Amino acid sequence: MNPPVFSLSLLAPKYWPAWLAIGMLWLMARLPWPLQRQLGTGLGWLAWHLIAQRRDDTLVNLSLCFPELDPDTREAMARDTFRNAGIGIFETANAWFRRPEYYRERITFEGLEHLRAMEARGKGILLLGAHYSLLDLGAAMASLHFKVDTVYRPQKNPVFEYLMTSRRQTYHHWTIPYRDMRLLIKALKNSHTVWYTPDQDFGRKHSVFAPFFGVSAATITTPARLAQLNDAAVMLIHFCRNGDQESYRFLITPALENFPAGYDVADATRINAKLEELIRRAPTQYMWSHRRFKTRPEGLPDVYPMKKKDIKRRQQRARRQQQEGSK
User: Fold this and answer.
1) Total-model pTM
2) CA distances in angstroms from 241 to 194, 223, 225, 283, listed in the order given
């Protein structure tokens, strides 16, 4: 992959706030880790109190996925999720602006032998993971032992897009926009290891409903389709910060056998079950603020509060219809 090209247009005044934010990330990565952790905890506390929509979405997700827990316990989990997300901002800064070698002695890797066995086949490997708060740091840690491509969602702000892709290419092999299926297929056919996160709601198109933590969730069928290319192996990854807050665990599972089975719902259910099993190892390091269940099966009500912008659009549409009806 060619590195992203810097353009002088990125220095326009309208992008100065973005460059200021990037400078702050660089400074954050220079701080001692204990201070980073404390500041990240503070950011999480602040976000909990200021970002009501994300807080409410997190509580809804936890109530759906952990109905056996009482509300106080779920709120404690939600608060810890925000704390981990705040710390994750610093871990992302470290991934972008520190060399991965900084973490070599702080990581315990499990399952590398499974990956090596699949690499020896000379075919593509699809590594399926979830959206954890230390997503970028996990990728940087992986680069210490193997080359991996990543599939990502491009940023709307061109400065952040330039920074993210340029920094990620220091530890990723290829960075593949999630809509560029041709490049993704090429990577697998070239026997690359591709990191793919199928745990978000992308709507009904190319999705089936499969249980995720016991809740019917729109689940993309892409992993099963990709696995058929070049007989690609499908494996799962998990990484988390240990309880000492100083070290990390990285896990690669054995390749799934007899996958895909050829039945979309069964294949999606199997992937979701594996992801759930891994998320439960450190549940509050998962990004529960995503609207994982925004697409609902026919006849079931929405589970999330309507966003303010959607309420505003609905009100504007109602006013227009009223005005048109009065003419």
Assistant:
1) 0.90
2) 23, 27, 32, 11
